[in-house]
Design goal:
This protein has 291 residues and is an alpha/beta fold. Helix content is 36%, strand content 22%. Helix 1 links the parallel strand 1 and strand 2.
Length: 291
């Protein structure tokens, strides 16, 4: 692959790391992205690109030309007000798309609560949160589009994302972190670089209508993660707080679910060895290189 014409709905940390990965492989990139801000030309990682305004209320119609000519499309916009706004506004464009590669980024919240048991791509989906319900509905829309229009669409279910910039170490350093006590509570995580690497792998190894869990090898409790982070920073571990004392509905919803996400299909299909197989390698790298 010498050149890629890519359209990113949303340009957050996953999309940016994906573009950085493509650029690092000396592939010529023609990039278009969407943003809530007004349309403008911009630059990222020495790549000049066009950014078009797109939100639930408005979009710049000039983006349609770029969307139609894109051979690769990444959708990283979460549902807004219970709707997938990309499908809502551009389904007719996608129905006639000649793209080679369309990827929808979902989340493992679609599984809901499995009481700490392992889940894989064939496990029951029973989301407990509004976000999880909306994500699952969006997945079904994209996969139905793939089926009815024979489009090359894959779905990646991302576990909790951390990065060199956003991670438990930076949170612990603020002094605002709390350990919320709840037994048999497991969460899965993934470093954003590993997501970018998998996306890059899928450019050459792609199977339409497939779903992949994107997760590392070591699901764990947030308590275990914070204790490890505190040791790395050589600080006292945060105070333990009972879940019943937490006022934030978002945090309460987060702790409703306990599951361990299996990544076997991801590793085997993409023949991929994780750069950060667990939070231990990930946090050690962050501590030694970015903090």
């Amino acid at each position: 692959m010498k050149k890629i014409n890519i359209f990113c709905f949303g340009f957050g940390q996953v999309a940016k790391n994906f573009i950085k990965k493509i650029n690092s492989e000396n592939i010529n990139i023609n990039l278009t992205v969407t943003s809530r801000e007004e349309s403008k030309k911009n630059s990222f990682n020495n790549i000049d690109y066009e950014s078009f305004q797109f939100s639930e209320n408005i979009f710049d119609e000039k983006l349609i030309k770029n969307l139609k000519s894109s051979d690769h499309i990444l959708i990283s916009i979460a549902p807004i007000k219970r709707e997938d706004i990309v499908i809502k506004n551009f389904q007719n464009i996608f129905e006639n798309s000649t793209s080679k590669w369309i990827t929808y980024l979902s989340a493992t919240s679609v599984y809901g609560n499995h009481n700490g048991n392992w889940v894989d791509e064939n496990s029951r989906t029973n989301p407990t949160s509004i976000n999880g319900i909306d994500r699952l509905n969006a997945e079904k829309l994209w996969l139905n589009l793939a089926e009815t229009k024979n489009l090359p669409i894959q779905v990646l279910r991302l576990s909790g994302i951390y990065s060199n910039k956003n991670n438990i170490l930076t949170k612990l350093k603020t002094g605002n972190a709390k350990i919320i006590e709840k037994k048999n509570q497991f969460f899965s995580r993934i470093h954003v670089e590993d997501i970018a690497n998998i996306l890059f792998k899928s450019l050459q190894n792609f199977k339409s209508k497939e779903i992949f869990n994107i997760s590392d090898d070591k699901p764990t409790s947030s308590e275990e993660l914070m204790i490890h982070g505190s040791k790395l920073l050589n600080i006292d571990k945060p105070k333990v707080t009972d879940l019943s004392t937490i006022e934030s509905e978002m945090v309460k919803n987060f702790y409703k679910d306990s599951k361990r996400v299996n990544n076997k299909k991801m590793k085997e299909f993409f023949n991929y060895k994780l750069k950060y197989p667990t939070y231990i390698e990930g946090l050690n790298y962050i501590l030694n290189n970015t903090i």
